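Morning - 3-acetylpyridine adenine dinucleotide inputs below, output right after.
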Amino acid sequence: MNRRDGNRQPETDTAFDVIVIGSGFGGMYMLHRLRSLGMSARVYEVADDVGGTWYWNRYPGARCDIESMQYSYSFSEGLEQEWSWSEKYASQPEILDYARHVADRFDLRRDIRFQTRVTTASFDERDDRWVVETDRGDRVTGRYLVSAVGCLSAANLPAFAGMQDCQVPILHTGRWPHEGFDFTGLRVGVIGTGSSAIQSIPVIARDAEAVVVFQRTPNYAVPARNAPMNPDYERGIKANYADFRALARTRMPAFLFQYDKRSALELSPPERERHYEDYWRRGGLGFLGAFSDLLLNQESNDSIAEFVRGKIRSVVKDPEVAQLLSPDNVFGCKRLCVDSGYYDTFNLPHVDLVDVSETPIQYFTETGLVVADQRYDFDVIVCATGFAAMTGSLDRIRITGRKGMTLKDKWRSGPRTYLGLMSAGFPNFFTVTGPGSPSVLANMMPAIEQHVDWIAHCFTRLDDAGARTIEPLAVSENAWIGHVNEVANESLRSTCSSWYVGANIPGRPRVFMPYIGGFPAYLDRCNAETETSYAGFAIDGDTALAPPRVYPWTTRWNLATPT
Ligand code: N01
């Protein structure tokens, strides 16, 4: 057993105010807020420490693609000021160190039970409490249940025939061995060409004797342009961090980047080319901010897609490989990847690319795999095959609401939530960055903080009124889902087979899961609920709530002192 909670006794018949599932950045901040409200909480976590995504994704090259000065908590000025990032985009080990630092600083671990998986959660309608069971024999109750399981946490390991008999190690990027893996002198097969593959392949290729990449769909990647943290830049932001954060919240994805409000079609082709060059030099996800209509207008999108394909052709020397690596779908439709030397890696003599779009991987052998009847032998196989996104981790828990309805059944044709915060029929059950909220389309840190603050504020209002339950009205939920779909359909992002629509895994319903309307618009909707005393929700029959208390997320984008 690992170091934390390895031998603890099960907890039974203990009543908490709130049960939280997960101790990534969402669960950690939720716990901190609950303590500030004087509420008792138990957090369950499968891993043996905090960190969530950044605990599991330890593959070589893993790092954040949102600037570290923005991908960090804003709730504590002391924390903000004392922590220093060493690079513009922090690496996974540094982000995990940050998570651990937060856990130490706020003494979070004492309320977290590690190495414990929540197996079932059932709403008991007789006393309006959630009964939660774990794989360690715990059976506890909570007035509220909060899921902070993360959006990209259920690893997707495709069930290739013969996999179970394969004798070489099979690694998944999202479940990387803690002791690391030494690729020196090894023959490595990599399946997948999403963000995880694009970050890890150049690093793996540095040490490996041979690398074969199996690509089903090529992805667009933009250079990260990572660099050591500029101390002047850091000092400048820290001198006025609150304003910097507040400004970021006015942007669609809740982070700051250079954004051009013009249409790509307003510029002549040579001007446009120069403009793209300028953005390419800056690099990073902000490349998508080169024009305002890149995801709205096909012609504009074609122009940026062709620019990037031109870049791929200019880097990759073998024209056939360059062609294979060049996507022909909408630029930015799948999650844009950022890279450090990805395309260049395919110029190395020991790196090969195999197209499995038409002829999929047939089966695994004891020492490798077979594609189009050709056998490939490896010393290790890396599956960079992604996640059952947005709903995968919740699907693994049997969550039962009113009248015996399970969440999995309710969401069989796609997740149904109001504001990504709650689902009708599941009273007092909240999801942090759930489907139907900006979540993966936004900077995850402010998205988490806004959800947690909204939920915490809701708890205080309900308590003040002596209300026992809250859940969305079916009519609000239906209207919200209609709106989520409507804005998704306006965007070119809904046109391709991405994990945003569940298309990366056979059999999943095809529904655009995150809310694409932008963080500011979403914040307005959440604030409207707070200001109307939750008009879109049913609260304990007809309990009247007192007028709103001071709410931390105002429409003026200021983060005032939490209630
Ligand atoms: O996963 P993915 P990921 N046979 O789903 C392929 C975040 N993230 O872990 O595209 C062959 O993007 C699959 O092919 P296809 C970020 O939000 C962020 O890379 O489905 N191939 C695809 O190429 C990201 O988007 C960072 O046709 C198979 C790949 O596996 C999200 O996490 C870093 C296959 C999976 O790509 C997920 O990224 C890393 C099969 N049977 C991740 N099944 C940052 O930079 C799947 N594939 C912050």
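Note: The pocket of 3-acetylpyridine adenine dinucleotide is lined by residues 64-65, 152, 158, 173, 191-197, 199, 214, 216-217, 335, 338, 356, 360-361, 384-387, 440, 499, 504 (CB under 6 Å).

O.
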